[in-house]
Each structure stands twice: as C-alpha cells, then as structure tokens.
Sequence to fold (635 residues):
Amino acid sequence: MTAPAQGVLLEAQAVTRRFGGLTAVNEVSFTIEQGAAVGLIGANGAGKTTLFNCLTGFDKPTSGDVLLRGKSLLKLPRYKVVRAGVARTFQIVKPFPDLPVLANVMVPLIVGGAKGDIKAQAVQVLARVGLAHRAASPSSQLSEGDLKRLEMARALATKPSLLLLDEPFAGLSVSEIEVLSATIRQLRADGTTLVVVEHKIGSLLQLVDRVIAMDQGAVIADGDPQAVMRDPAVVTAYLGGGVPGEQP
Amino acid sequence: MTGSTMTPDAEVVPAGPSTAARLSSRLLKVNVLLLLLLPIALLFFPRFVDNTTLLQTFATANIFVMFATSWDIVSGYTGQVNFGHAAFIGTGAYTVALLNKYQPDVSNELALLVGTATAALLGIAIGVPCLRLKGPYLALATLSVAAALVQLTFIYKSQTGGEDGIPGVKTVVDGAITGPIGETLSEFVLGPLTFAGLGGFDQYIYVSYFVSLVVMVLMVGGLMALGYGKRGLVLRSIQQDENAAEAAGVPLVRYKLFAFVLSAACAGLAGGLYAQIRGTVALDLLTVDLSLLIIIIAAFGGAGSIIGPALGAYAVILLQNYYLDRAATVFVEHPELKLASFSVLLIIVLIVQPRGLVPPLLRKLSGRGIASRAAGATMVDGGGAKP
Fold:
C-alpha cells in the first residue's frame, strides 16, 4: 500500500560482541532502508541472535554502534529503544501466559501512552495479525502458530518503524507457515520495515528482498536473495559445499 | 466499537471488545458490590454486636488487611517477593512510638504521616539498588533489612526498649477522631451510643474499630483501583515475563519501584496505626514471624488480587485471635500451634486452589463459561504468584 519511504532507518557500525574469548559478532556493518524487508541467515552459532539482541537493546555491543535514523540506541534502556521504534519478537515465544490475548496487546498500548478506548485499539492490532477472534481467550490456550502472531501483535502495538522477527517459522507446520507468511507480507505492505532471522530459507526468500548471510560472527554476503544463496562463501558455510535450501 | 472494520484484512470478530468489555464489566460489578457491601456491613456491625473482644479482633483484622494488601501490590502483582514486609510495618510503628516518646506534642495524625514517609524512604533505599537487578535480590534484601532492624532495636535499647519495646504510645482515642467529626460518625453508625458517651475501655475499642476500618477501606479501595486498572495490568505483565514486558516497552524499574515504595508507605501507615491501637510497640512488629504470616494470608486468600489477601486477613486473624481459642483449649495452651495449623491449611488450600481461595470464588459468582473466565482473568485472576 504505502510506497517505501526513502532513507536509512537502521545502521549497524562495526558492531562487535565478545563473550570472554569468543567473538560472537565481529565488526558487522550494514544499513537498512526504510520500508525494506531483510532476511538474516546463517548456521547455528553464526551470531544472528547475538546481533539481533544488540540491535534491539537486549544486549550491548562490546564495540561499534547501532543508529536509528542517525541516533545511537546504545545508551538507551530497553523500553526507550522500543519507544524509539524498534520492536522484536523472541525465538522462543514469550507471551504473558496468564493474561488473556487482548490484555497481552493492551500492555504495550498502555505504556505507550495510548488514549481513548484501549481495548478497541488492542482488537484492531489483533485484527492485523488475524487474531481478533481469540481476544478473550487465555493466551495459554493458543497454538504455537497463534502465539507467534500474538507476539507479533504485541510488538506491533508498540507502533514500531522497525520490526525484528526472530525465527517466526520455527516450530510451525507448513500450513501455519503459509498463514503467517501472508500476515508478514501484509505488515510489509502496511509500511513496516522488517528484519527476519530464519532458518527456513525457502519460506524466508518469499518474504524478503535482501538477504544478509553471517558466518562465525561476520557478514559473508549481503544483497539480492538469489545472488546471496549462490555465493560460494554462503554455500560453503551452510552445507560445506552443498546447495543451501529448505531445512527443517 | 469494533475496530476490525478499519483494517484492510478485516475479519469477523465474534468475541470483540464489546463482548470482552461486557464480560469483564459483569465481573467488575460483583467486585464493586463486594467492595461496597462489605465496608457498609462492617460499619454498622458494632451496632448489632455487643462483644468488645470480637470488635477488638476485627480492629486487628483491619490492620492485617492493610499489611496483606500492601504486600500484594508488589509481590502478588509484579512477582518480586518481599520476605521482610515487617521492616516497613515496624518502621512505621517505631517512628510513631519514638515521636510520641521524644516529641509528645506531635499529634497522632502527624505522627502517622511521619511514620508513613519514613517507611516510604526505607522503601526507596531498598528498592533503588535492588529493583534494578533481576532475580531474587529483593527477597534477600527485604529479609536481611528486617533482621537488621531487629538488631538495631537492641543496639539502641535505651531509645527503643529492646525486647520490651516502647509502652505508652498515644492511642487512637487521643486522635482527632474523638473530636466533632468522630462524634457525628459515631452517632450515625452507633445510634444512641457515641464515642464520648461510651467512655473508658468501650470507647477505646469502638474508636479502634472505626478508625482501622476507615483507613483500611480507603487503602484497599485505592489499591484495588490501581491493581484492577491499567497500571495493574502492566504490573502483572512484569510478573509474567520481565523480558517480554521490556520488549513491550514497559519501563520495568519505574513500575517496580513505584509499586514497592507505595507498598512500603501503606505498610508504614498500617504499622503506625497498629501502634496507636495497641498503645505499645514491640519486636513482634519487626520479626520474620509477622512477615511470614502476611505471606501465608496473601497466598491463602489469593495473591495478586488485592481482595484475596484482604479477605484472607479476616479469615486468618479471626481464627487466630478469636475462634480457635474458643474451638479447642489446646490452642489456648499452645498458641504456637495456630501458625503451624495455618501452614498446614495453606498447603492443603494451595494443592486444591493454587491461586488461593478468593479469585476462583469470585469467578464462580460472576459468570459461567470459559469465555467469561478468560475475560475475568484480567480482572481478578491472580496470575499465580507463588511466594
């Protein structure tokens, strides 16, 4: 719907994160344009989640900087990173299990200073991910696929300009992936900039127009999805020479 | 009302906001009814019950309602368990007693205010360093501060009286309540009797009863408004998952500190008032026994619901101070059996109803069916805080 606005939204500048002697993320730099949909891939242990945590304020880089619209996010507490417009989901879903679905989405609206009928606004957000019919259910009764949507709704309720999804398809069935993909495409059409970490590359490639590949903490390829997947370094990193493709 | 019509991928919303709102407002009604009926019943209770021992027990129960509900707004709601709530209660009580001792001219009401403020300051002193950390630090800090305060009373024995405490605290009868306003109130609720007309011990009992009742109702009302409102929902999200709450944009430290300092202030006020009702302060207001009894009361009634700990306090205190003594002589001969029985009772209750007795009962009263129970979860469900 909305034409992608111009300009750089997020910039990682030589982001490095060390845990003792281990360099999990090593001098990673890239920029993400407003309205883009970027996939972040790499084998387990490549540093994706650590990078993800550094981008969202859940971890602090050892060195380097993360800028949102030119302003550093590093000194901000987590809730201010969220208010600045960066929202995330978790690889292992973290709903508020004892709160109903609706209340899960009301929390970010309340702390975000929403005015008026917060319940109605929460239902609107739930409708964006196709979960409005479960508004009154306890979130502990949702399926894994619905929990992923609930997390997405909770993130959307913070009104993010950048949404980072950490393995949204993990643990989902093929049909659940299809439904969730449609939801994610709709978010993008609504103008949300997306960064998606995902192992299910076939499904990921249908969502993104750019892929960043990581190996051992460093970016080894960045650009057009098809080109990145054919890149010899990516092929080697993934399958030791085979062709990277659908993985369970 | 149905916002889904405004989005491109609109869908049918059978359980939309109107349904959810209707269900939860139905539940709210039962809570509000209880909230209004109970204090009114309690207000006129002395008119029909000519039993000063029972009234005195009720006054103590009112105080314990404040202890338990002020504990609940932090520990039941955010899940940060306070194992030393007595530290705040004792701080309020000893501040009132020490003020009386060294500044006898200070009015009861001002003494209460100072006691409340001192307890709130202690809350800030503990909360600022501890609530920045995740993990069991608050539990450890509260436990050790309460223990340290007990030691302080021994170090400053000449001021605090050590084991003997401070006797001769000005009682509620010396407060403004026995003035014109109190007389009007007592005429209204007691009929022919008035505070002044009663005199002596009866006057002291009746005044204790009413003052504790009024302060308790105001406090519980305020805490319920907080707990059942938007801020209460945010506090409960913290208890559910701190990382998820942060991802949702919740300023964790601010919310936890707010709840903790409010809790400390309320406990200080209740402790100060307790001192003015008993006319004496002693170490039992600081010990771990008191902190544990508060946790037992809250868990028994249903932590994280305010109304649960409030009703739990009535049940436990009426049993402990009144009915058990009359039920079996063994409790008179061995009072320590009471706390032991409560612990056993609590274990049984928690096996049957892990969220305490009151929230499930309220749900049963207010609606049937899974949907209403789900909507009700925002209103009364304790979220299963297990202290």
Summary: Chain B touches chain A through 47 residues (CB under 8 Å). Confidence is low (pLDDT under 50) at residues 1-18, 368-387 of chain B.
